[in-house]
Amino acid sequence: IAEMAELDESVRDTTDALDALGNTTAATGKGFAIGSAVLTALSLLSAFTEKAGIRDGSVDIGEPVILSGVLLGAMLPFLFAALTMLSVQKAAGAIIIEVRRQFAEIPGTVFLL
Q: Could you give the CA distance from residue 46 to residue 39 in angstroms, rounded to a whole number?
């Protein structure tokens, strides 16, 4: 809004800083929400196993090694998806740089499209 209203650069600097602070606060809140959801899911699973009497010793989700394995296993698809997105971003950026270079260096490139 400050940019479209053509306000002073100092106003734009202030609004940009406030926008960055808002984004940081939102990201922090999302992290707390995810952590809370994980703890809630573990509590519900523990309550279910207790109420259902499932204590035959086969798999105890409350055991630290198993719990860490479950959490790491649940995180892996998101990690690989993020790494894939970063690779695509790098490749797309390289393509854009190369296309811009060709447009700048080779005369008549625009007309080949």
A: 10
Which pair of tokens denotes residue 44?
A: 């519900």
Q: Tokens at residue 63, please?
A: 């055991």
d(CA 74, CA 79): 10
How does residue 112 score in pLDDT terms, banded at 50, 70 and 90? low
Q: Is this model's pTM higher than 0.70 or not?
A: no
The closest alpha carbon to 71, from 35, 27, 21, belongs to 35
Nearest to 45 by CA among 71, 16, 84, 19: 71
Q: Is 107 helix (H, G, I), strand (E, B) or coil?
A: coil
Q: Which two tokens stand for residue 100?
A: 């811009």
